[in-house]
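WARN retry 2 of 3 for item q-0093 after timeout on previous attempt; input resubmitted unchanged.
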Amino acid sequence: MTLQFFDLANMPATPWKNGGGSTRELVCWPPATAAAGGMDSFGWRVSVATIAAPGPFSAFAGVDRQIMLLGGDGVQLTSSGWQHTLAERWQPFAFSGDEAVDCTMLGGISTDFNLMLRRGVWDGTLQVVRSEPPPTGAGLCMVLQGRWQTVQAGQAARVLTAGQGAWWLDAAPPRLQPVRDPGSAEPVLAFVALERVAS
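OK item q-0093 returned
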C-alpha cells in the first residue's frame, strides 16, 4: 500500500446527530467499514471534530480514545469518577470509549483531533513532535504548524503545511522531516504511531 495524502481543508464535514458539532474523517480502517458506516467494527479511526454546543459524546464500546485540542476555548469532559479540562492545545488525553462522557463548553467553538483504536486489535499513541519521529509500519501525521517534508523511497519529496498530512499502512514508512525556515513558525506535527496487537 502506498502513502496516502490528505488536506483537512478538502475533507467533508459530517454533522452530528445531536447537532452539537461536526466531524471530518481523515481515515477509517479498514475502508469497508467506513463505506458501510460501520462505527461498530472499524480497527482504527482518526478524525478532526468541531464542537459547537455542549452535550454527550457518543459511546464506542471496546474502543480506546485519545483526544487533543487543536483550537478554540476548549471543553470540560466529565465522566463517572473523573473529569478533564481540555483547554490547552496540543496536549493529548486518553480515555475509554466505553464510558459515558459529557462535554461542557468553556467558551466558543472548539476543534479537536481524535484517535480511536479497537481494543485488542490495534495499539497506538498520539504525540506532538517537533523533530523527525521514528519510522512506524503504520501511522498518520498532520501538520499543526510550519512546514514538514515527507521522504519515501521511490517517491518525490513532498512538503506539507498546516492541516495537511498523510497516513500509511503495510508500506515503507516515510521519513518526516521538519523544514526550518528562518523567521517562520516552529514546525509542529501531530503524529500517530500504530501497531497491530498480536493475536
